[in-house]
Design goal:
Blueprint lengths: L2 H4 L1 H11 L3 H14 L6 E5 L5 H8 L3 E6 L2 H11 L4 E4 L13 E7 L8 H11 E12 L15 E3 L5 E4 L8 E3 L6 H4 L2 E3 L2 H10 L3 E6 L11 H8 L3 E7 L1
Parallel strand pairs: 1-2, 1-4, 2-3, 4-5
Antiparallel strand pairs: 5-11, 6-7, 8-9, 10-11
Helix pairs in contact: 6-8
């Protein structure tokens, strides 16, 4: 039983509400541009949640295997995906029973903030990737999306007209589990914050070779809402690309 099993309806509703937004889509577009042709590729969607990324990967010709520790989220993923995608309940940190060197690509999208042992996860990814295989890790940008207390001060500052003025970075060096206390995902489930150097050094120690960093921004546009204005100025998400 995971915290996501306790909040499955909230989380699925949240994913449904944000996955079509421009601020979210710009990250997905950048990842698929970097992935290139997936036809015939064997892909692992690690900590797949309700399976939205698995479905996008399958649409592009990949054979997809999704894993998540939440039994209820895997049930939703199976209902939404049909039989074309294989899903299993498993701990992403270890994936017991999964054979070594069987995947061309592994993705862990917006999930590692919920996983306590990244050293174990990175070692597992290296084990299950084929030689030369690629890993795409997407997180809330650790340099800008740092721990905050929603009851005290939200991380975004606005001007007198309610437009985006700046992003407040707080407690960057304070690694570990935190809870915003707000009504969003990090208020319900919490998150593990880590410095950028921790992610990169842990990947390198596990035998990964960093190949690319993606920090997608929205193009400037008139009449943008606050979230869009934020994503025009500051990269909300970071994707670290590596190979083994």
């Amino acid at each position: 039983m995971t915290v996501y099993d306790d909040h499955v309806d909230f989380y699925v509703g949240f994913v449904d509400s944000v996955k079509s937004t421009s601020a979210f889509q710009v990250t997905i577009d950048a990842i698929f541009d970097a992935l290139g042709d997936l036809d015939g590729m064997h892909v692992c969607d690690l900590a797949c949640g309700e399976g939205f990324l698995s479905r996008l990967l399958a649409e592009r010709g990949a054979t997809v295997h999704g894993f998540d520790a939440s039994t209820k989220l895997i049930e939703v993923a199976r209902q939404r995906s049909g039989r074309s995608i294989q899903y299993d309940v498993s701990d992403a940190q270890h994936l017991p029973g999964v054979e070594p060197a069987i995947y061309d690509v592994v993705l862990c999208h917006m999930a590692i903030m919920d996983i306590p042992d990244i050293d174990a996860l990175f070692a597992t990814v290296r084990r299950i990737l084929k030689p030369g295989g690629r890993f795409f890790l997407t997180v809330l940008h650790p340099c800008f999306e740092t721990p905050f207390d929603a009851a005290d001060r939200e991380p975004v500052e606005t001007d007198e007209q309610g437009n985006y003025a700046g992003c407040r970075v707080m407690r960057y060096r304070e690694e570990g589990l935190w809870d915003s206390g707000g009504a969003g995902v990090r208020g319900h489930m919490g998150a593990y914050h880590r410095m950028l150097s921790t992610y990169l050094n842990s990947l390198i120690s596990a035998g990964h070779r960093i190949t690319q960093l993606l920090e997608p921004l929205l193009p400037d546009a008139d009449n943008a809402d606050l979230d869009e204005q934020w994503a025009m100025q500051i990269p909300r998400r970071l994707t670290i690309c590596s190979s083994v």
